[in-house]
Amino acid sequence: MMMMKMMMKSSELVVFVSSVLCVSAVVLHEDLHIRGCSDSDGEDAYTLDVEELWYADFINKKGVYPLPSFFSSFRYNEGTYEQAVADQQICRSNLKNSRIGMKDLPEENDAPSSLIIYSRDDLELGQKNTLICHVAGFYPAPVKVHWTKNGENVTEGTSINVPYPNKDGSFQQISRLEFTPQQGDMYSCSVEHPALEEPLTRLWDVQVQQPSVGPAVFCGLGLTIGLLGVAAGTFFLIKGNECS
């Protein structure tokens, strides 16, 4: 299956092509190759079940495997990055032709329909973790994501994956923030998109429940009172039998 999306933003036209490489009647895994370009930028990435396996870093001129080494030892053939560079030339040629053919078409924008923020792992104060900001349902791609901590902008430890196409033609993206939770800290994830008049923001605060002995104490107290009641009842029953 091949899907092509042509997107206009101001005077810039972006062409995205994504190929579904592994599909069956019962879908076990979805393997996508995402390729895109604009006048000033480009991207080429492979994903598996929404996880980004490899992408071309055209700034540093190399291919990058963003997942930790323990996740997968799989590696693409040598020359994958060089092929991505060659594909960019084809993409820009298609871009030029598309701009001519679409010059009179109205611009299309869909604002994000979903924005959620959550932690990757269970929270433990003082233990490193990752906040995930997931935005979905927007068109065209990409979005811009900004993080704050206690009202201050945060850039260190942040990352964002390439736009991932949904089956309805919209996109989703995930931004991550490496952080160490401390009780009471407040984080926010803000998303900018051409279809939004102002950034869409979600807040997330560190709330770790401290261990409580209250229920155990009350349960223990109730059990003790119950046992005393049984003992008292038994005592008076025995005494009553002795008197009769």
TrEMBL record:
Domain Ig-like: 112-201
PROSITE patterns registered for this protein in UniProt: IG_LIKE (PS50835), IG_MHC (PS00290)
Chain ranges passing through the membrane: 215-238
Alphabetized Pfam families for the sequence: C1-set, MHC_II_alpha
InterPro entries in alphabetical order: Ig-like_dom (IPR007110), Ig-like_dom_sf (IPR036179), Ig-like_fold (IPR013783), Ig/MHC_CS (IPR003006), Ig_C1-set (IPR003597), MHC/Immunoglobulin (IPR050160), MHC_I/II-like_Ag-recog (IPR011162), MHC_II_a/b_N (IPR014745)
Family (UniProt): Belongs to the MHC class II family.
UniProt protein name: HLA class II histocompatibility antigen, DP alpha 1 chain-like
Gene label: LOC114851279
